[in-house]
Amino acid sequence: xxxxxxxxxxxxxxxxxxxxxxxxxxxxxxxxxxxxxxxxxxxxxxxxxxxxxxxxxxxxxxxxxxxxxxxxxxxxxxxxxxxxxxxxxxxxxxxxxxxxxxxxxxxxxxxxxxxxxxxxxxxxxxxxxxxxxxxxxxxxxxxxxxxxxxxxxxxxxxxxxxxxxxxxxxxxxxxxxxxxxxxxxxxxxxxxxxxxxxxxxxxxxxxxxxxxxxx
Length: 215
Hints:
single chain; alpha+beta; 9-stranded antiparallel β-sheet
C-alpha cells in the first residue's frame, strides 16, 4: 500500500444559518452555554469533548481530546493526571487552548487562556463521582509513563481491587483538576462557499468586545 494519499477532492458543503454580531450574547460564557446546550439537546456524540492544546517551555505543541466537566464564569474545567504530558507542559507553560467541534451543527468554538490547578477538594469530589472501574484505572495508571505491557496495568488494577475490595480506592495525589481562565473566545459557524462566520470576544474593561473576522 502506498503511503501517499491525495485528499484534495475531499470536501463537503456547509449548510447552516449564519451568525450576526447583534444576535450574540455580550457574555461569551452565556453564548457558549447556548451552543453547548444545543449540541446536547440534539444528543450529539461526545458533545462535551474538547481538544486541549498545550506547549512545553520550548514552545513545542501537543494536543489531545479531553472531556469538559464543568464551566462557569471562571473558566472551563477538566480532570487529569499532573504527571501526564499535558500536566507537565501546563506546569511549564500555563498558556493553553481549547477547541470544541460540533460537526453536525457546522460549529466550532475556540477558547484561549491560562490553565490553573483546581483545589484538591474539587478533584476528590469528582473522583468519587466516577464509575468504580474508572477510579481503579486512574489509581493504577501513571499517565503517559512507559509500560512494558497492558498486562502490567491489568495486574495493578487487580492488586488495587484486592487491597480495596469495597471500591473505595484512594485518589492518587497527582490526579487533579484544571481550570482554563479564558482571555479569548472565537465562535465559528460554517457557511456556503466557505464564506464562514467568525465572531471573537476579546477582553475590554468591564466586559468583552465582539469583533468579526474574515473566514
